């Protein structure tokens, strides 16, 4: 049998994973497994911590991956009947991580509560419940959630969950 030799890449081809996709001379565009499956996931919350402490608690292996946006850390696992994914892009502000269900479920709130209970963290670790990428309906947040310590009055301030999330990750000030 003769050995088949494949030529090397053309010198002017950019790496297939390098943006801007489809604009270079390389005819191939590689995408990650994460980039392929994440749109099928249901985001159920955002946590104010990285993936590693959760993975250590549950003895999970953190996978290093990438998608069309950035490099990321991710863990996928089953816990008490729910299939979870937790991801953190390198570029996430303040090290927040996203919590997903890998299979959409009607009891998303219960799934997030289950995760918090098993990991042993409280509601204070939750920056946002629901999907951070959707503009939720107007909600109510207390001044304790919106104001810096020492300026808490306990009065209710109308604000959307999306605005609360942007404040929590430092994208806007509490006054906006």
Helical amount among residues, as a percent range? 10-25%
Mean pLDDT over the residues: 77
What share of the residues does DSSP label as strand, in percent? 25-35%
Query: What's the helix-strand series?
Result: HEHEEEEHEEHEH
Number of helices: 5
Q: Tell me how many strands there are.
A: 8
Alpha-carbon Rg, integer:
20 Å
Fold topology:
Layout: H1 33-37, E1 42-47, H2 51-58, E2 63-66, E3 71-79, E4 82-89, E5 97-101, H3 108-119, E6 126-129, E7 138-142, H4 143-146, E8 156-160, H5 161-168
Antiparallel strand pairs: 1-5, 1-6, 2-3, 3-4, 4-5, 7-8
Structure description:
It is a single chain. With 176 residues, this protein is of the alpha+beta class. Helix content is 21%, strand content 26%. It has helices at residues 33-37, 51-58, 108-119, 143-146, 161-168, and strands at residues 42-47, 63-66, 71-79, 82-89, 97-101, 126-129, 138-142, 156-160. It has a 6-stranded antiparallel β-sheet, with helices on both faces. The protein has a two-stranded antiparallel ribbon with strand order 7-8. A hairpin with a 7-residue loop joins strand 4 (82-89) and strand 5.
């Amino acid at each position: 049998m003769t050995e088949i030799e494949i030529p090397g890449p053309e010198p002017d081809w950019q790496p297939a994973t390098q943006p801007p996709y489809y604009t270079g001379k390389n005819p191939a565009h590689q995408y990650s497994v994460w980039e392929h499956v994440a749109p099928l996931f249901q985001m159920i919350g955002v946590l104010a911590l990285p993936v590693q402490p959760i993975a250590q608690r549950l003895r999970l292996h953190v996978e290093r991956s990438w998608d069309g946006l950035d490099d990321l850390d991710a863990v996928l696992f089953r816990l008490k009947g729910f299939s979870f994914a937790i991801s953190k892009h390198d570029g996430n502000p303040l090290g927040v991580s996203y919590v997903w269900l890998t299979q959409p479920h009607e009891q998303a709130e219960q799934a997030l509560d289950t995760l918090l209970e098993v990991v042993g963290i409280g509601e204070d670790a939750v920056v946002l419940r629901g999907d951070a990428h959707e503009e939720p309906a107007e909600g109510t947040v207390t001044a304790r959630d919106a104001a810096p310590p020492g300026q808490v009055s306990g009065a209710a301030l109308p604000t959307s969950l999306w605005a609360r999330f942007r404040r929590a990750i430092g994208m806007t000030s509490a006054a906006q």
